[in-house]
Structures are given as C-alpha cells and as structure tokens.
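To: structure desk
From: M.T.
Subject: fold request, one chain
Message: Could you run this one when you get a chance? Sequence is below, nothing fancy, just the single chain.
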Amino acid sequence: MKKDPPSSEVDVEGVPSILLKLLGQRGVTGKENIEAFLNPRLKDLSDPFLLPNMEPAVERIFQAVDQNEHVIVYGDYDVDGVTSVALMRNVLDAYGVSGGIFIPKRGGEGYGLSDVAIDNLLAKHGKPDLVVTVDCGTASIDEIDRLGELGIDVIVVDHHEMSVRGCPDCIAVVNPKLGDDFHYLCAAGVVFKLAHALLKRRKAEGFDLKDYIDMVAVATVADIVPLVKENRLLVRHGLKRLPQTSNAGLKALQQVAGLSDNVSSMDVGFRIGPRINAAGRMDRPEDALSLLVEKDLEAAHRIASLLDEYNCQRQGHEKQIREEAMKMVYEQCDPINDPVIVLGSRNWHPGVVGIVASRLMRQFYKPTFIISIDEDGLGKGSGRSVEGISLVGAIQACPDDLISGGGHDMAAGLSIREEKLADFRKNFSEYVLETTSKEQRAPRMNVDSEIGFDVLSLEFMDSYDLLQPFGSQNPQPVFMSREVWLTEAPRHLKNNHLKLFLRQGISEHDAIFFGGGERTLPDPPWDVAFTIDRNTFRGRTSLQMVIQDVRASHSG
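Reply: Done. Structure tokens follow.
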C-alpha cells in the first residue's frame, strides 16, 4: 500500500472535557490511548499473517496464479458478502487469475454453500480448480466435503462462528474466530487482510489496496460488527475516502442516495447499505455485485438507480409485513410480559423479515424472530436480539425445534417447519428466562451525558466528530437536556415523523423525532434524550437534534 498522506492530527490537550468524559465511558483513557482513538493511522495496521491459517491460504492462491488455474469466488448476498466478493475478485484479477464469481439467491439457493448452489455453480462455470468462499463456508462441512470429492480445493475466508462439528476439511479456513484476536472483523475485513498478506509476499501491478478501504468501511458498518481497533481505523479512513471514491459503483450509489461530501456511518447504515442489501432481498444479488465491479460511471448510475427501485420495493414489503406482524403481536402475544417475539406467516417476503425483526425488537425491547413460510410449510426466519441475549445460544438450546440456524449473538437466521413454531416460541422463551434476570430484560435508555442547549453549536460538532465513526461498541452518544419547552406546535411529517421546535432558557434548536407521531407526548416542559448530527439543506449546514425519547420534566 502507498504511504498515508500527511494529515492534520488532533491535539489531545485541546479536547473538550465533555469529550474526554465520553471517551472515558468507552474505556479510552490515558494520552496514548486517546491519541490512538482520535488519530487512527493506517500504518498501525497489524501483520495480516497473525490471522489463523493465512500462510496456507496465501500459498494456495499463488499456486493458482503460477499455474494459471481457474478460481471461483463464492460469497453471500448481503452487503458484507457482496463487497467481499468484489474485493477478492479484484485482487485475483490483479494477479491475472482467471475465473468468475458466484452469489447464491436468497430464495432458491439460500445462505452459504448448499447443494443446489453448488450444482448451479458447476453448471455455470464448469469445474474450477479452486473455490474461495467469502462471508460463508465456516459451517459448510458437508458441502465442502462434496467439493473435495469432486477434486475442487476450497479456501474459506469468513468471520462467522464455528460449527459444533469443528472446521471443514479444506486448504485453509481464514477466520479470526479460530484465534484469539481480530474477532471484531467482518468478512470484508478478513478479505482485506488476505489481500494485504498477498501483497506483502508479491506485488500486483497497478493494484493499490487503499482504493478498497471505502468498500471495506461500507461492509464493516453495514454488518454491525464492533467499531473497535482496526475496524475503527478502516472505517474512519474509508468514510473519508467515500466522497472521492475511485469505485464507480459507490460513487453512483452516493449520488442516487443524495449524499453530500461528508459521509457518516449513519449514511452508510441507512442509505448506502440498504440499497445494496435490497438487491439480495429482491433475489437480484448479481445486480449489487455488478454495481461494485462496474468501471463506467454512466453504467454504474443505471445499476444504482435499479438498486434504488429495489429498495422502494423492499420498503413496500416491509410496511406490509410490519403492519401484519404488529397486529399479530397484540392478538397472539403478551407484548408486556412475554420474553420473546416469534411470528410467522405464509404472506411474508423472505428477503425483508430481518428488517421487520429489527424494528419489532427495538419497539418492544425483546429478542425477535420473524419467519417467512413457503407453500410447503418450510419457514425461513431472521432474528434480532437485545443486549445480553445470544441468538446463537438460543438456537443451540432448541435443536429439536429447528432444521438449521446460525449467525451472530445479535443477528441470526434459522429454518423451521411451520408446525414447530409454537414449540420454538415456548423453548426460546424458557431459554431467555433461564439465562437472564428481569432487570436485564427491562428496556432502558443509556444517557451518556447531560448537556445544555447553549453548548450545542457547529463548533461543538467539530470536536464531537472526532468520536466518529459510530456503531457497534462505539455507539453515538445520547445526551439529555432538562426543562425543555416547545416554541410552536409539532409539525407532522411523512411516515409519522415529527419536526419539533424546542427551547431551553434562551437557546432554541430544531429537532426531528423519527416515529414520534405514533407517540402520545406529555405536556411540556420535557426532559429530552437525543443524539446530534449535521444537517445540510440547500447549502446551509446546521446542528440537528434527533430525539430518542421524551418524558415530562421531573422538576416541572
């Protein structure tokens, strides 16, 4: 990689006290640690050969390079998977390796390696010499055995949890979960490390790994992995690079999403990521991949517009499922006392159930599985959890109820027969009740600091932005202000959002309250919990409060 350009480093001595407090709450103390957190540098990236099984993976790929072998990159259909495939294929192309790419369709082939997907891969590409799986493969023991019997070597580049049966029998499983460090990396991060290892051993003409940091940043944010250590470093530098990206697809996607010159992790999470994911959700993952490997900006813009249409379709499906699921929550469940939510229907699109699970989880603060059931009674569901409750643990605790399942503690997928839904709901509930206390299951909002309206300014935002990027394990700080009044009636926006005009003392600020129109608000004065963001409208940038919760002011 090229050397970092000179950057304007932050003077730790000049960091405002409130930011030092926020850093302390995140476990960042001491001048050296604060310096590393506020000024992450690419030169601090660790040796990629520290990852498990990196050496045999590098050796086998260079064998493919030297012997002109045919190599297929096989990946998942979400943001992390698609970006991983694009990066891995670009690396192989830089070394002159022939081959292709394959991403299974969510509907017909399912997640990861499956027999039907392998059949389709062989029909499309013939028999390759080597398959590199990215963002999948760790638990695909039988499927990788089948490839081995066919004389096809396999390298797994992944970040998912190990199967209880152990590792697949293949050339190498490059997965940080096999070691003691780097557990925070997403799949694109692991592919980035593999690319770094290859480049350390042998340069690739005209290939600069820095050109792909923005792609890795998008995957890291979208996959909701912890923004710590090297993840924070990659995302900080990747977000800076996005507005000037050399990737035509990412450039077009930002234009379609209406993004400005400053791209935040929130922009990636809510505007870039969903558009890439929408292709896979609509069973068109190849379009998302085509976007990321497209070289021509005009062609990329056409594909980005197509992904935008998919996203609109996804939003329509999501609205329908959410409305039906909400009705079922109150008809079939006790939303106050039940420890979990498990709902299924034959009317629901399988590509959107994860988003609805996430929304219900946040609304009711309960681990949630939403399941799409096909005409044969086979259900495929996605789950989202709350802090302290592992979905992987829950899946492992209910083996008799499920066909299969896996993922992360906070997000997981499963397959289940329709007639087993009630049993799974019961056993999942028992697992949660046995492994958590009532206090752990209670919804709560963590406020980082109390702050006055008079402190909120663009100058404060300049210092505040040093804490970015925000995400898992570095959440956006939640502030609280007391004795807040309305200066005029709330303005109702589309999708039940509210525009609020607030005053504390002599200081006034506008605020947005997403979904606030669904709430019955108390009479002012209020205590308000909120986050802050920059809002640019018609060329004018201002600080915007984003309301998280409102309560009647205790001293009012």
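Reply (cont.): The first strand starts at residue 70 and ends at 75. Let me know if you need anything else for the meeting.
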